Amino acid sequence: MVVFLLVLATNMMDSNHFRIVQSNLTTIYEDRLLAKDYLYKISRQIQVKRELIQRSDIEQWSDLNTALNDSIQILNDRFASTQLTENEALVFESLKRNIRSLREYELKLQRNDPLNTELTTSGSERYFTAVYDDLDALFKIQLEESDKVISNANRAIDTSNLISRIEIGVLIAIGLLIQLLVFMRPLK
pTM for the complete prediction? Predict the structure, then answer.
């Protein structure tokens, strides 16, 4: 009976630990790796905008800007659908504000037909810098949170391994005790 209860208890604990590990693996993929991919793609879209503005290629820029903005908005929405930490949500709100400011600046540029190269290059740089600072902060948060999730999963695995070793030790001790009881029967 003791062996049965021991095996049942450890199986229940192992099941809980496996649920924790499974949840953590899902979190790493959905809320960290995919989120980092979204951030990378936003970064690439912002880089394309920056290059077009720096080249002062108004025709190509006007054609692509709407598509780039739509793409960035879709990526923002996907990123927002991931599980965000409190700090991550704050930085993400800052990123959205900075992207809106960049769009407002772009609208001013579009209304001004004769593009002044100095104005567009130097004026836009502060908007791009703010966006990149937020993206860098979000990348850093992704790494930190991934590390926390992996540490949590490793703790669950280590606990499960420890319990398994204790279970084996207890089973060996029970087996030895039964052997002693069988061989040490009182002589009549």
Answer: 0.74
